Amino acid sequence: MNSKTSSAERIREKKKVFLLREQKIIDAALALFLSDGIDRVTVSSIAAKAGIGKGTVYKHFLTKNEILVRIMLDYEESITQRLAEGIAKSEAGESGAAAKAYFESRLARPELDRLVQHLEIRLIDAPDVADQLEQLHTMRRSNEDSLNSMITRLIDRGVLEDVPPHYHYLSCWALAQGAVELCFSRSWNYRLDSEELMKFITGVGVTMGNRGQYRDPKTIADHTASGKK
Amino acid sequence: MNSKTSSAERIREKKKVFLLREQKIIDAALALFLSDGIDRVTVSSIAAKAGIGKGTVYKHFLTKNEILVRIMLDYEESITQRLAEGIAKSEAGESGAAAKAYFESRLARPELDRLVQHLEIRLIDAPDVADQLEQLHTMRRSNEDSLNSMITRLIDRGVLEDVPPHYHYLSCWALAQGAVELCFSRSWNYRLDSEELMKFITGVGVTMGNRGQYRDPKTIADHTASGKK
Amino acid sequence: MNSKTSSAERIREKKKVFLLREQKIIDAALALFLSDGIDRVTVSSIAAKAGIGKGTVYKHFLTKNEILVRIMLDYEESITQRLAEGIAKSEAGESGAAAKAYFESRLARPELDRLVQHLEIRLIDAPDVADQLEQLHTMRRSNEDSLNSMITRLIDRGVLEDVPPHYHYLSCWALAQGAVELCFSRSWNYRLDSEELMKFITGVGVTMGNRGQYRDPKTIADHTASGKK
Amino acid sequence: MNSKTSSAERIREKKKVFLLREQKIIDAALALFLSDGIDRVTVSSIAAKAGIGKGTVYKHFLTKNEILVRIMLDYEESITQRLAEGIAKSEAGESGAAAKAYFESRLARPELDRLVQHLEIRLIDAPDVADQLEQLHTMRRSNEDSLNSMITRLIDRGVLEDVPPHYHYLSCWALAQGAVELCFSRSWNYRLDSEELMKFITGVGVTMGNRGQYRDPKTIADHTASGKK
DNA sequence: TATGAATGAGGCTTCATTCAT
DNA sequence: AATGAATGAAGCCTCATTCAT
């Protein structure tokens, strides 16, 4: 009986070690991506950084791309998690909480968010990992139902502009996407107050699409003129 | 004299041919990037599409990256041009015209805008073309003075929220950046009404940061609560 | 005493289990070679198909090649066995029985015979298994004495052409070798009557080298000419 | 005019040099295959032997397999050529000339014939070169019409056994195939008189299937017994 | 001046074998 | 005794760039 227990334990132990090493690979890859740039990271360098042999990497991942996709999935999961919490808060009455949570989670580690954006660009059309990429998209879409009903309610309450609900959250997505890129753009990064800037953008994101703000672009001149008075 | 003239003409002729060929290379590269995807385009394929020899490409560009950077510069120039026009209009009284022009020019050919975004990602940290990339950034910043003064005036007139002027145009940049990516994201592109959506986002972009819309995120709960009441 | 008996039994039991597993490995390897093709079979896949761990395979065979060679030896043994029976029959009066038995045994499972041919091609010059390969050759030669005396007698009786005895059985070997390959050649396999064809070839094999059939190639023209008249 | 001529000449010259190098690659590959064995030849080693860079090989061949297939095609072409001559002679009255030509051409350089056999085994099921392999098969089948009519005539004249014509030439193919393998089989190659042996086999090949030689295997015993008397 | 053949560094991946548990 | 994770040598192929003609 003892031997049985110890055997089962041993197996569990092995699995844990195995998973730890997997995490080690991911961490190594992530660190290298962030420090060296995507194209300068090779499987060899990942293995070296993780302190294992090159072949070992392939015990955990079928291809190099699977490592990249794994990083993306892990990240997307954390975003989804935080968004879900935000949606819950929104439903509880804090109308802007979802958007706020979304922005804050994406801007919490902008360098990571940006990495994931760039990884996705590389992987689109990669035949291997096409399935996992679909998973990623599914994950993103999985929040749509909650978002839709939440937003519909806000529209009904007159908080948000009355347009198709997805206009609102896709605008948020777009702004967050761009905000992250902004953090690292060589064109702008000489500005040092990016934290305040990000708060401003978050504010914009939280309130954008609120009723009374959207106007048909064609009428803007008039509106502005009248607003001036 | 005649021979001199014809010689000068011949030289001018040659230069024209040379420049035409340069444009041909760029057009070929652009077409291939858009149709085949960035990584599947080789110098060979560009030369073939342009109808010239591979070696000739290197008479016009020192490295492959220089072709890419050239595409970016050409594009940025057109954006800058249209933005400048928008700024002029804004100064003439149509407060949102600059933002509107900016969004419309970037969303006019989103596939091209996106290509340029992706090219930039590849080229960041490329030691060759570092100079040209700096040119690109300079070009982007070139309108900042006009933007700053324009925005400052709008702030003074009470149209825009009173924050550092660059907050406003950087938000625009970010939203446009994200909007373009949105057009092609596999997660969302199953939506067919993207034109309407883009109009909505443009509207958001044009009015975002308008006075009375921005609130410190920390106060959102309160605001919402009051709004709820 | 009881314990001794049971201990001895246990050892015998273990040996039996061990041998059974060895057979399982060979069967698994054979099945995979036939279904997937030689190069697509890995030690891993063999172990998986045999339902054991990869490491265990190496308790039975020192190298992967030893599995292959073992398949060859097993097969050659069965051929040799059947040939010996044929030789016995021949000695008992049925002059063509040996050749017939040989062809029929090789053509009984042509896919297996072909596999063994191909395995041999891979293993020639493999430093490991050089010894076992020599065994294989020895096994093939093991019937030579009987074959020689049998054929010598047939020559003396005037049944077979008077050439060195091995000419006869090596011709048989060659024809059988080629016949097997013929079964699977992409150049010819669109023919559906291969069974009849194989019977024909067997017939040829059985009678080839019979007296009066062999003519010096140089005289063929004359022969034909006279035959024509 | 002179410049035109020299330009055209230069191009022709270049093409010649290019083709010469292609032949150099093939020769190098062939030499290495024969000396080192198929699996020990790498693209690197071929390039080294040909005295060129590794990348240059890929200017001439899309994949490594294309080199192999090219060797096969070149060889098959020479066989086809000689067979066609033999068929012509056969039609001219020398009934066995076709078979003789076929055997002699395949046995002229048995080591090369065998290499081609082995190459085919490696390449079957290679997705690249599937087309070229089909070419090879087509080439082989291309002689069938001539063979069929030739053999039909020999059957009508009573020279050959009255079975479907392809039985005859497929038997030849099989015997030749096996004879080549026989030359190098470790089981038999300790015999030194292989030249005489090959003549014997050629003789067998030339006359096999001649009328009066084929008998249903089942009746062989009786026949032999009667032949004994 | 235009060309395109030649180059070779460098990337990804496979798999037989080992060995600690 | 059985396992399977770890290893790393070795192979194929790509493509930006050079340079002789």
The greatest interface between two protein chains, and residues involved on each side, is: C-D, 68 and 65 residues
Computed over alpha carbons, the radius of gyration of chain A is 22 Å
Broad shape of chain A: globular
Q: Give the CATH H-level superfamily of the largest domain in chain A.
A: Tetracycline Repressor, domain 2
Give me the count of strands of chain A.
0
Which key terms come to mind for this protein?
229 residues; 2 domains; homotetramer; globular; disordered C terminus; Tetracycline Repressor, domain 2; 11 helices; Arc Repressor Mutant, subunit A; DNA-binding; mainly alpha
Question: Could you characterize what this model shows?
Answer:
Four copies of one chain form a homotetramer. Chain A has 229 residues and is mostly helical. The first copy, chain A, has two domains: 1-61, Homeodomain-like (Arc Repressor Mutant, subunit A, Orthogonal Bundle); 65-226, Tetracycline Repressor, domain 2, CATH 1.10.357. Helices cover 76% and strands 0% of the residues of chain A. Chain A is built from eleven helices and no strands. Chain A has helices spanning 2-36, 43-50, 54-60, 64-91, 97-108, 110-123, 130-142, 144-156, 165-184, 194-207, 220-228. In chain A, α4 (64-91) crosses α6 and α5 runs antiparallel to α10. Chain A starts with a helix and ends with a helix. Mean pLDDT of chain A is 86; it is low at 214-229. Chains in contact: A-B, C-D. The interface between A and B is large, with 65 and 67 residues. The structure holds a DNA duplex (21 and 21 nucleotides).
